[in-house]
């Protein structure tokens, strides 16, 4: 057997329904010992989709109550930031590029980058930050603005892009930074007055690949909630839930890594160095549904400010109001399920989304629409 | 946005770039965020164009083994 086949073979085992079934039974027995259901927040929207797609919530009904978390960067982007992207794209000679999912998120008056593109403005979806650099180099007459979004999973990419642009002395590329910090919002959820009921967390697998598991230690200690960092196959999640159950029974409270094939205690040191070199922490940043959260996002350091699109291009943004019936804010906080929203599946569908949770491929509303509609 | 997928390195182009393959599709990826060197045949986790981690086959195998062991031990009482 050659190397690639052997690895594929191992990978497929993480999808194995038989293994999942036996572990589900084991978890049920353990929870019977524990005596009551456990409320687990899966922070990451990617996990929400795996749980619903594979019906893990149904398999564990009455034993585990899944609370869906804010871990989807598209879902938490504030209305005024979308409006900012739209205004930037209207500047003459600008080509605005961003990750694809963001294009359909409605800003004020249900305007989106996708709709604006249909009016003839130059807006390009990209699938790697380095494509922004290529665009700038190949189109010297254009002002290329990269509207960068994402948690720690994508912020190092943007840092690499900025450093590379400086090295190559690129003069027509700017970044508008919307990079946000997963651990800060996780802690924020545990502090707000309107707290969701959470006993433990399933930690995000790819954010933690960068940050490392040690980064969570102080949160776990302070708030006494176990965190198990999980991979993205059904078996990964079931294993993570089992580890949480064990911690609850044994009254332990730790950070554990289930996703050992990718996550280490230290994380990706090189990526963290890039982050430190290019970004500072912002004093405050707006999140959709959550409002301003102090120290919750990155900004570009002054050494690199010639690439900071927010400083170079001054546009005025006049944001409207969100649709008052959209429950995204509560969905993001784990306080409401998408199906509790009056607009769900009626006025708000993936084809015609009202809130970002229905747009993003990791959004909870989209997951319910795809897997839970009766 | 936060999903990453395992890719196999099929060609190292230079210090910073490689061609990698997943499910028959080949793409150019950046190696700039990888803390350790990789070679052709290695598996990496790729997230929007960047390899962010070399994947550990050993760890994957070990975690599966550990779980199978656990299931075996608990089988009698599962019935
Ligand atoms: S269903 Fe639509 S309107 Fe309702 S919370 Fe979700 S995104 Fe918002």
Write the layout of secondary structure elements.
The complex is a heterodimer of chains A (374) and B (79).
Chain A (H helix, E strand, L loop, with lengths): L2 H11 L3 H18 L3 E7 H9 L2 H4 L4 E8 L7 H11 L4 E6 L13 H6 L4 E4 L2 H10 L4 E8 L4 H13 L5 E7 L2 H10 L8 E4 L1 H7 L5 H7 L3 E3 L4 H16 L5 E3 L11 H10 E3 L2 E4 L3 E4 L3 E3 L8 H4 L15 H5 L31 H8 L3
Parallel strand pairs in A: 1-2, 1-7, 3-4, 3-5, 5-6, 7-8, 8-9
Antiparallel strand pairs in A: 10-13, 11-12
Chain B lengths: L4 E8 L4 E6 L2 E6 L12 E5 L2 E5 L2 H22 L1
Written description of the protein model:
- The complex is a heterodimer of chains A (374) and B (79).
- Chain A has helices at 3-13, 17-34, 45-53, 56-59, 79-89, 113-118, 129-138, 155-167, 182-191, 205-211, 217-223, 234-249, 269-278, 309-312, 328-332, 364-371, and strands spanning 38-44, 64-71, 94-99, 123-126, 143-150, 173-179, 200-203, 227-229, 255-257, 279-281, 284-287, 291-294, 298-300.
- With 374 residues, chain A is of the alpha/beta class.
- In chain A, strand 3 (94-99), helix 6 (113-118) and strand 4 form a beta-alpha-beta unit.
- In chain A, helix 3 (45-53) runs parallel beside helix 16 (364-371).
- Chain A is globular, with a radius of gyration of 21 Å.
- The model of chain A has no long low-confidence stretch (mean pLDDT 92).
- Chain B is an alpha+beta fold and 79 residues long.
- Chain B has a single domain, classed as Roll (SH3 type barrels).
- Iron/sulfur cluster is lined by residues 326-328, 331, 338, 341, 343-344, 348, 354-355, 357-358, 365 of chain A.
- Chain A: This is Hydrogenase formation protein HypD.
- Chain A: Keywords: Iron, Metal-binding.
- Chain A: InterPro entries: Hyd_form_HypD, HypD_1, HypD_2_sf.
């Amino acid at each position: 057997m050659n190397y690639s086949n052997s690895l594929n073979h191992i990978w497929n085992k993480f999808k194995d329904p038989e293994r999942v079934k036996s572990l589900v039974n084991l978890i049920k027995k353990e929870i019977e010992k524990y005596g009551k259901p456990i409320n687990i927040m899966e922070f990451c929207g990617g996990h929400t989709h795996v749980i619903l797609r594979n019906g893990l919530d149904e398999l564990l009904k009455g034993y585990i109550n899944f609370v869906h978390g804010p871990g989807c960067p598209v879902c938490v982007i504030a209305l005024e930031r979308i409006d900012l992207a739209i205004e930037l794209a209207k500047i003459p000679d600008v080509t605005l590029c961003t990750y694809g999912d963001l294009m359909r998120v409605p800003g004020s008056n249900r305007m989106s980058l996708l709709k604006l593109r249909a009016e003839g403005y130059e807006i390009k979806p990209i699938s790697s930050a380095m494509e922004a650099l290529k665009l700038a180099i190949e189109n010297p007459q254009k002002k290329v603005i990269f509207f960068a979004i994402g948690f720690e999973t994508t912020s190092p990419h943007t840092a690499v892009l900025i450093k590379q642009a400086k090295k190559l002395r690129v003069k027509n590329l700017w970044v508008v930074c919307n990079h946000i910090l997963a651990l800060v919002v996780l802690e924020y959820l545990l502090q707000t007055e309107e707290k969701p009921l959470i006993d433990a967390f399933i930690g995000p697998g790819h954010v933690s690949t960068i940050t490392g598991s040690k980064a969570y230690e102080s949160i776990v200690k302070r708030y006494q909630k176990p965190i198990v960092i999980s991979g993205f196959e059904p078996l990964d999640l079931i294993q993570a839930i089992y580890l949480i159950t064990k911690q609850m029974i044994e009254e332990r409270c730790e950070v554990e890594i289930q996703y050992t094939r990718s996550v280490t205690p230290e994380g990706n040191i090189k990526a963290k160095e890039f982050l430190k070199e290019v970004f500072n922490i912002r004093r405050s940043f707006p999140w959709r549904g959550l409002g301003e959260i102090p120290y919750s996002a990155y900004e570009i350091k002054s050494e690199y400010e010639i690439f900071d699109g927010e400083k170079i291009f001054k546009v005025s943004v006049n944001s409207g109001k969100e649709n008052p019936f959209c429950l995204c804010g509560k969905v993001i906080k784990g306080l409401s399920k998408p199906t509790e929203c009056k607009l769900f599946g009626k006025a708000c569908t993936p084809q015609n989304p009202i809130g970002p949770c229905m747009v993003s491929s990791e959004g909870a509303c989209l997951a319910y629409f795809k897997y839970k509609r009766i | 946005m936060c999903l990453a997928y395992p890719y196999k390195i099929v060609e190292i182009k230079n210090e910073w770039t490689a061609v990698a393959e997943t499910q028959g599709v080949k793409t150019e990826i950046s190696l700039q965020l990888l803390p350790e060197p990789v070679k052709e045949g290695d598996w990496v986790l790729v997230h929007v164009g960047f390899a962010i981690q070399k994947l550990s086959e050993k760890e994957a195998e070990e975690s599966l083994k550990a779980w199978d062991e656990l299931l075996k031990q608990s089988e009698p009482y599962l019935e």
